[in-house]
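Please go through the protein record below and explain what the tokens say about the fold. Record follows.
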Amino acid sequence: MGLSIDKVLHVIAYFVLATCFSLALDLDWKIINNRDITFISVFLFGFTLEIIQGYVLIYRAFELYDLLANTLGILAGILSVKTIKKIVVKSRIFIN
């Protein structure tokens, strides 16, 4: 339990997921204020995976620390997306 490489990987994965989702909403779908949508959608995705692990799969378990690590990654992604958007737009990465 506690801080382990597994939790760090959860933070990184959900940081990337939340950042990409938020950028897609903003740059592709033109939904400017998407923090709430991003947080709720990505959090529910992670929560659903934890529920499936805890109650459907026999060899896995629901872990509250995984959910907390996911949430930390989501918040970090949401807070940094403005800066990342500037870098992406300025460098014209993925923009046609």
